[in-house]
Amino acid sequence: MPITSVTSDANALTLTVVGDYAVPVEWLWDAWVDPRQLERFFGPPDYPATFTRHDMVVGGRSSYVMTGAAGVTHGYWIVTAIDPGRSFEVIDGFAGDDGNPNDEMPTMTMRFSFESTESGSRFVGVTTFASVEAMEQLVEMGMVEGATAAFGQMDDVLADLASFAAGRSTESKILNDTQVRFTRIVRGSVEQVWRAHHDADLVQRWMLGPDGWTMPVCEVPGEVGSTFRYGWEAEDGSGGFGLEGEVLESVPPHREVTTERMVGMEGDPATNEMTLTAVDGGTLLMLVVTYPSSEVRDQALATGMVDGMESSYARLESTLVNA
Known about the structure:
Elements: E1 3-9, E2 14-21, H1 25-33, H2 35-38, E3 49-54, E4 61-68, E5 71-83, E6 87-95, E7 108-117, E8 120-129, H3 132-140, H4 143-151, H5 154-166, E9 171-174, E10 179-186, H6 190-198, H7 200-206, E11 213-219, E12 227-234, E13 241-251, E14 255-262, E15 270-279, E16 282-290, H8 294-301, H9 305-322
Helix pairs in contact: 7-9
């Protein structure tokens, strides 16, 4: 069964959605923490969402945009509590085109709980409004109908999750004119995957792209404000190139934001946002790259970088097994 009930309580200022699913609770949890799955049901069919950020840790932030015939709506979450595999709570609000909160619109507190049942698992989502006026405003905007239609899509997502999880190769999705999201489930814990990005000895063993390359230069990123530099060359010493950048944000072992540019290349750098999230079977590695322009984005994708990333991430898994 999909959504089993949608109820509102004007006295408690709440809207409660309950759904029962014939899948393990781990699948249900993963559907919410993986933005690729979440954006398939967080938003009605005619007003789907795209997540450009999704940090599932306390204090983390998610950013999304919902697009439909009525226009574009920007929103955000701020995670206020999380019990991995069981529940999490967020402040949900509207944002402007720049991603900053729209203070003219009300915010809500949403708590999502997940539990095992005899037939599978249950999802309970409770939205609490700040006031009667806020509740009335959002209900008039179609929130009840929207939530029913949106969460009603979870059945198809969960049914597909088994085949989805089996295909672990690197995926890319163009989010907008300048942003691309790369995702890969890596066998290993969040802590292991983080260390593999910050231990030079480990980095040199896996961050090599296609076979036939070596990494003689490996200065790994550290604290905010530190710089990094990588250099590669073919096994015969030819074709050398490098990347360099600066650390803008660092929240070990979950999130890191850096700039990145080719060594010796002029112009604005790209910005890389890496997020690591524990999921059933390993760690979901998400990398959102913001390029200076759509032209630079297309040039980067045309190099075959997705295949190169997959070669590296497959090697990363082997490195973790043997570390």
